[in-house]
Amino acid sequence: MKNKITTKEKILKVSAKLFAEKGFYGTSIRDIAKNAKVNVAAINYHFGSKKRLYLEVIQKVFLSHAEKIRKEFNSNIKNSPKNNPECVISALSKAVLLSKLPETERKVVFSLLVRELTDPSEAFPIIAKHALLPLVEDVAKELNKFIKTQKENLILTVLSIISQIIFFNFFSRWVRNAVSFSKYDEKTKEKIIQHIINFSLKGLEGCKGDT
Amino acid sequence: MKNKITTKEKILKVSAKLFAEKGFYGTSIRDIAKNAKVNVAAINYHFGSKKRLYLEVIQKVFLSHAEKIRKEFNSNIKNSPKNNPECVISALSKAVLLSKLPETERKVVFSLLVRELTDPSEAFPIIAKHALLPLVEDVAKELNKFIKTQKENLILTVLSIISQIIFFNFFSRWVRNAVSFSKYDEKTKEKIIQHIINFSLKGLEGCKGDT
DNA sequence: GTCTATAGCAGGATAGAC
DNA sequence: GTCTATCCTGCTATAGAC
Question: How many helices, marked H, and strands, marked E, lie in chain A?
C-alpha cells in the first residue's frame, strides 16, 4: 500500500509544469524546490543535475501524456459512427484539443513540444521518435484508407492539419488577438475545431492529385 | 558621406542574429560583444540594458524586415497574371518563404516571431500590432474579393494558411524528420509551397459556408 | 565613445552533518 | 534520504581611466 507520493515523483510533476511554463532556462532548480516543497539538494540527489531532471521529465511525464493522446485518437477512430476522412480529422483534433487529459497535463505536452521545436535539445530525438512520428503514422494510415496518394503527400497533409492544431491551441493568445473573439471559452474552442475540420477536409482533396 | 557602419548598428545587427538563434536567455551580452567585436560596456553605453537592446532589435530590425515581407506580398498580388484565390495564397507563401530577403534576415524574422509566440515578452504587442495584424488584414482583404463570408471566418482561414507556412518553414528540422526527404533544398521547398497552396486552396472552399 | 576592472547577484552543484 | 552551508561559475551592469 505505497500510494504515498514520493519526493521524486513530486519533483517530476512540479518541474514538468515549470519547464512547460517558463522553459528550461527560465526555470531554476530553486524554483522547483520551492514549488515542490523539497530541498534544492534533494533534486541533485535524485536526478544528478538539472539537465538530467529535464530529460527524465520528457521520458516519464511528457511521453506518458503524449501516449494518452495517441490512444485517445485511436479510440476516437474506433468509436466513430461513420467511416470517412472527416472522422479522422475530427478524431485527431478532438484527441489533441479536447482530450480528457486535465488542462495542466495538456499544457505540459504542448508547451514542451513547442519549446523543443523552437529550441531542440537532446530530448528532441526522443520526442520525435516516441511521440510525434507514431501519431503522424497512425493518422496517415487512417487517411490512406480514403486517399490514395504517395506517402510523402500523405505525411505533408497530416502535418498541415497538425500545424493548425498546434497553432490555434498553443498560440491562442495571438489568435485571440487577431480574431478578436470577445471571449475564449469552450464554445470558441469548438468553433475553432470546426473550422480546422472544414478547412482540412476540403484541403485533403487538394492533395489527392499531388505528384 | 557617412556610410561607415556605426558601432550601434553593428551591435543591433549581430544581436538580432544571436537572439534569433539562441533566444533572449540563451544569448549573453558577452556573446554579442565578442561577435560584434565591440566591448561589453559599449552595449550598455548605447542601449542601457540587455532588455532595452532586445526591444530595439524588435523595433528596428525585426519590424523593418517584416515590413519588407508584407510589401513583397502586396507587390506579388499586383503582378499576378490572373486574379483568383490561388494567386493570393501563392503570393503569401512566396513572400514569406521565397522573398528576396537574404536567408539570414528571414531567419531573424521567423525565429524571433516564433520565440515571441512561445514566450511572449513586452515586445509581443509591438510585433502583433505592427507586423502580424497588418499582414493578416491585407491577406484577408484580398481573399474577401473571392470569398464572401463573415470576417471571423476569413481571419481563421488566413491563420490556417499562415500556421502551415510557419510550421513548414521554421520547424523544418522536424518536418525533414517526419517526411524523410533525402535532402532539404530549394526543390523541396518549392514542393512544400506547392503542397501548402494545393491544400489551402481547397481548404478555402470549406470555409465559405461556415456560420 | 571606448576600454579595463570589478561590483553584485543568481543559479548549479557539492560536501558533510544529521 | 534530507537538510544547511558553501563553492564556483557566469551573467548583467557600472565606475572610472583614457
Answer: 12, 0
Distance CA B29 to C1' C1 in A: 18
Q: Which residue has the cell 558601432?
A: B7
Residue A184: count of CB within 10 angstroms of its CB: 14
Q: Cα angle vertex B11, ends B10, B12, to 5°?
A: 90
Show residues of chain A in contact with B132, CB under 8 Å: 174, 177-178
Question: CB A174: neighbour CB atoms within 10 A?
Answer: 21
In a domain, A167, yes or no: yes
Residue A64, Cβ density class (10 Å: 0-12 exposed, 13-18 middle, ≥19 buried)? exposed
pLDDT, tens only, A121-142:
999 999 999 999 999 999 999 9
CB-CB neighbors (< 8 A) of A118 in chain B: 23, 114-115, 118, 170
Contacts A–B by Cβ distance under 8 A: 146
Distance B71 CA to C2 C1' (A): 39
Asked if pLDDT for residue A159 goes beyond 70, the answer is yes
Closest amino acid to nucleotide C15 (CA–C1'): A41
Residue B26 lies in a domain: no
Cα A136 → chain centroid: 12
How far, CA to CA in Å, does B45 sit from each of B40, B41, B104, B151?
9, 6, 27, 47
Is residue A76 in a domain? yes
- What CATH code is carried by the domain that includes residue B178? 1.10.357.10
Separation of alpha carbons B162 and B190, rounded Å: 16
Q: Which residue of B has its CA nearest to A21?
A: B119
Which residue type does B3 have?
Answer: N
For residue A133, the chain B residues in CB contact (below 8 A) are: 177-178
B132 within a domain of the structure (yes/no)? yes
Q: What is the pLDDT of residues A170-191, one digit of tens each?
A: 888 788 878 877 777 888 889 9
CA distance linking residue A12 with residue A137, whole number of Å: 29
CB within 8 Å: A167 and B171 = no
Could you tell me how many residues make up chain A?
211
| Residue range(s) defining the domain that contains residue B97 | 58-207
Domain count across chain A:
1
DSSP letter for each residue of A155-209 = HHHHHHHHHHHHHHHHTHHHHHHHHT-S--SHHHHHHHHHHHHHHHHHHHHHHHT
The residue of chain A with its CA nearest to that of B152 is A179
| CA–CA gap between residue A58 and residue A81 (Å, rounded) | 35
